[in-house]
């Protein structure tokens, strides 16, 4: 992860949701009046939040997975 405080639309980011006091990894999309947090898993629904509830913690630059 690269520690930054802003990302471009469509980038995978580590995001702190202030009201919920939780972090998530989602694709970030700024939309008029809201932010859409899109999961990589197409079976999951996006999360819509107010822009002031979002704090970008960093940009995901690599995903390493171990297959057992």
Automatic annotation (TrEMBL):
Residue ranges of every copy of the Peptidase S24/S26A/S26B/S26C domain listed in the record: 5-61
Identification of the protein by name: Peptidase S24/S26A/S26B/S26C domain-containing protein
């Amino acid at each position: 992860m690269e520690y930054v405080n802003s990302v471009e639309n469509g980038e995978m980011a580590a995001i702190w949701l202030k009201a919920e006091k939780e972090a998530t990894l989602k694709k970030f999309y700024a939309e008029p009046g809201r932010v859409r947090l899109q999961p990589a898993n197409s079976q999951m629904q996006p999360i819509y939040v107010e822009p002031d509830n979002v704090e970008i913690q960093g940009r995901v630059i690599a995903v390493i997975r171990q297959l057992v």
